[in-house]
Amino acid sequence: MPRHTLPAMSRRTFLASTAGAGLVVLHPFSARAQAGQAHLRIMETTDLHVHVWPYDYYADKPVDTVGLARTAAHIADIRAEATNALLLDNGDFLQGNPMGDYIAYERGMKPGDMHPVIAAMNTVGFDASTLGNHEFNYGLDFLMNTVAGAAFPVISANVVTEEGADPTKDATLVKPYVILDRELTDGAGETHPIRIGLIGFVPPQIMLWDRKHLEGNVTTRDIVAAAEAWVPQMREEGADIVIALSHSGIGAAERTDMMENASVPLAQVDGIDALLTGHSHLVFPSPDYEGYAAVDAATGMIHGKPATMGGFWGSHLGVIDLMLERDGGEWRVVNTAVETRPISQRNEDRSITPLVDSEKEVLDATQADHEATLDYIRRPVGKTAAPLHSYFALVADDPSVQIVSLAQAWYIEEMIMGTEHEGLPILSAAAPFKAGGRGGPDYYTDVPAGDVAIKNVADLYLYPNTVRAVRINGAQVKDWLERSAGMFNQIEKDGDEQTLLNPDFPSYNFDVIDGVTYQIDLSQPSKFDSSGELINPDANRIVNLRYDGKPVTEDMEFIVATNNYRASGGGAFPGADGSTIVFEAPDTNRDVIVRYIVEEGEIQPKADFNWSFTPLGGATALFETGPKAADYIDSLQGIDIAPAGDGADGFALYRLTL
Asked: Which of 306, 351, 411, 526 is most exposed, with minimal Cβ within 10 Å?
């Protein structure tokens, strides 16, 4: 293999010209390097999820927080600041937004076709990538046709097509590692050969997450076990340094078999010099990882080795700087530094300021597929037999919340098949995100009956959460609902014109749990305050809680489908503090809703009225909603609601009779 200098300028003409337009300030490592010393910058993107353009396809509008076209501007700068640079991607590039779905479900990937994310990565000039778990979402043929277009090696050491006596005897789906022959320029301007070893890893849980595509075709090895086998072989083949491309999160320090987030024990493997991490959609170094064993969240070290995680969707570029010294024909690491560079910043007023502009060449390389994706998101992917609206979501079972619950339960039922949790009752918790409040009288979900386009899903589910499942008992289900019932003020029996909704309680914390039936007794005080603190231990607003027509007992066990925010403790819900999570999905709730609609063809989002208020002797309470609620009031069943005039600030006032 011929040797190349770093960076390989012939592959990066546009980036070099961009960097040369301004004053270049060398990194201190490059500035201080002496004869026999060389500064190597390792740049990481991770979890791109097809976000090439700075565009939110769900909302159908440009955004400043995502996009490889923006990250590319940092890449140009960093190459200019260093004598030698290497650009690596840490996986999950192939799926995760409507552009990816457009290619997979409509355009297709025949042999010889070019995927837009690969076209963009080729334009930027990546040196290598590893596979992430989402690379398998569309099947193996789609994956292999895609990576065939890459002008860089794609590696993964623990996805196996034929298992050997030990990992080094395995036949792997792609190359387990690659050794790049390069030349480094030292501080005196002399060039020296170096062999840079790159090895990739993916969570073994792909065999669960994409069982339908992978079962019978591949198996997976434990990440650390694969590293312990392959890294010594890489060193024997002459790798001077070894960089692990770990599409795996920074988690527990204690090693367990088949860990999903194995980057901390992976860092202990002898022979690995630096780690790229990902999968978790976080930034490292950052305060997110303060207190983690063997992790220095300030300096970016794991077990004393430099590591980075460059956010997600192109939000950050991870950078590891290595000062290398040549000693007797071999290179060794003598100093390190780690940083991340964001493409935008959030201001105190919650506005976003972009920090870089998009690189035109990256946009040009994907322009046609971007425009085709816009056509795709604006066309129907299914139908809804009834309107999806949230005007009465806080006072009655609601079709917009119902469809989210149905999609989550449908997904989790498939995901837990073959696990120890299979056969347990599956419930689903969802809340109305767009329900007026500070968003104003027009801030409601409103999708008419008929065609449903992908961009309508943003109206159903605002946030890029990922699906989670928790395993909890009947007592926790009841208290979860008690916490949710804090949405309402206490109502006196036989009282008139009382205020129904607690203005301090956000609608996204009003979880409705489908799969059980229950009533809310508003004559009782709330058991929890608006922040989730227990204030009335003996209160029981949730009554007649039943599953399959039978009373829910405290010791019954359930699987509850929800999102990562809630399952990890967001909102302080009993039973959802992070300790009860039994399944962490690789997919966003939005993606699951889209897949559900595509699978069903026509959805039937009729509210099943699994919850209601207990009668209170004809007491009445007032609440505000959007003026367009008038179009849907006739569809309500089993609840006495009538217009009561105008509310404040453009809202409409309604009266609920209990």
From this structure: 351
CATH of domain 40-374: 3.60.21.10
In the block, which residue shows the tokens 């309604």? 654
Let me know if 102 is exposed, middle or buried by CB neighbors in 10 A (0-12, 13-18, 19+): buried
Confidence of residue 63 (pLDDT cuts 50, 70, 90): very high
Q: What ranges do the domains of the chain cover? A: 40-374, 380-613
Peptide bond preceding 285 in cis form (omega within 30 of 0): yes
Q: Cα-Cα-Cα-Cα dihedral of 327, 331, 333, 338, to 10°? A: 140
| DSSP state, residue 357 | P
Residue among 283, 279, 303 nearest 293 (CA): 303
DSSP 167-226: GGGPEESSBSEEEEEEEEE-TTS-EEEEEEEEEEE--TTHHHHTHHHHTTT-EE--HHHH
pTM of the full structure: 0.76
Looking at residue 28, its pLDDT comes to 87
Longest dimension (CA), the chain: 91
Length of the chain: 658
Residue 212 has a CB neighbour count (10 Å cut-off) of: 8
In the structure, what pLDDT confidence band is assigned to residue 410 with cuts at 50, 70 and 90? very high
Domains 40-374 and 380-613 share a fold: no
Q: How far apart are alpha carbons 434 and 423 in whole angstroms? A: 34
- State which fold the 380-613 domain adopts: 5'-nucleotidase;  domain 2 (3.90.780)
Q: Token digits for 451?
A: 């065609």
